[in-house]
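USER: If only I could read backbone structure tokens as easily as an amino acid sequence. It would mean a lot if you studied the pair and described how this chain folds. Here is the record:
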Amino acid sequence: MIKKIWNNIEKTGLRHNSDALEEQNIILVNSISFLTATFCFLLILILFVSLPGRGWTNTRLFLLGAGVFYFGNIIFNSLGKFQFSKLIICCGTPLFILFISIFDKQVHPEFVTIKDFFFYRFMALCTTIFPLLVFRTKDLLKMILCSIPGFFVLVFGDQIHEWLGVGLGSFGYQDPSKLAFDIMVGLAFLALFGFIFNLKNLNERYYKKIDNQKLELEKQNFEITAQSEKLRANHDHLINAKKIIEDQNQKLEMVVAERTKNLLNANEQLVIQKNELTQFSFAISHNLKSPVTSLKGLLNLFEDNELSPANKEVYDYMYKTVDSMIDLFSDLNEIIDLRNELYQKTSLENLDKEVDYITDLLRKDIISQKVKINFTRHCETEIVVNKHKLRSILLNLISNSIKYRSPERTPEIDITVKESDGFFRWTVRDNGLGMDMQEVGERLFQIFQRFHSHVEGKGLGLYLINLQVESMGGEIKVESEPGEFTLFKFTHKKIT
């Protein structure tokens, strides 16, 4: 309870916008004023108790007035009159001590001792620190002006006592070093003033540093609060975004599941249709090939020498047509076989033997046309490959080179193979008739396209080659000059 009352008295007049130093000065003024007023009131009480029959003497009335006077400082602070209350504390207190000292000696001269002179001077010296306590160092002029009364009382207090007839000499005390003592008191005042001013300066610098740190902390706290609010807003936004994404993911999963189901159904239908189409193509090819083969067998029953010249010509034309149809059916079967899983199998094959195998198949034409074939290999002898496709590609390219040879020079075919970047790269170059690539254009690998009319053909060979190369994960390119050469370049992936 007492502590709460004391805190309220100390903080009388404080404002929310007061800084730490201003708060400290107001608390000091309130504390000094309250303690001084309380001392005056207690002293009056003691006098009334110890000397009850003397009533309200001048001393008691003076103490009462002083108590009310100092208690009024607290009221001034509550009204915001801080500068006025500081002035009363700093200027009024030493003058009040001087007045008490003189009054006491005039009223009770019989009780005066030399100690009374030093006691009141010591009290006056103590009051000189009040301006240093209640003013800031930046208010140095106010501090000095309010210190003048205290300095005046210390240095000239004895002279005032002498002038009013209550000095040391009036009571029979002689002090030959009195002047030196007054000078020492003045110097002590100046030293005390400088020492406390320096402490005051250090204290204010410390408080200023604390205030700056407080402001910085408040600034950081404000920034942290702002960032926290921003993070909270972002968090809420992310929560909402997450919810939206989750909803969209659920919808997307439903769409994906539905489409996956549709794709599976469509894939099943495609597999069924593919199998049906394959069976249909196989049936058509073989069903057509069988009667044609039978027709060729019937033609073989005829003897050439039994036919008339006219019938012999019809016979030769029919025989040649049947052979062409059988070859066409064989090519169509090979195209169908490209989609057959059995046709996709690979095995370790010897390239030298594969080239020899193809040249053996074409040996009759190679010998009759005096064809020179050169094979150069820049890779391992044995590689993993689909031999059916590789044989078909090389067989078609080499047979085309022989078929479309130039009559002006000996046919020569150069075959090379090398390995690089995960592919086997083949070249087949001849010195035959060549082609006009600008005229041929994109039709080169289309089905049923022919570019030389002087020899027979069906237009399936290059189409078949392109399908086989693509099925092996490669590509095929052509370079050619009419009457000069034709160069085929094709690749297929290396299988490990």
The beta strands are 347-350, 372-378, 382-385, 412-420, 423-430, 476-481, 485-493.
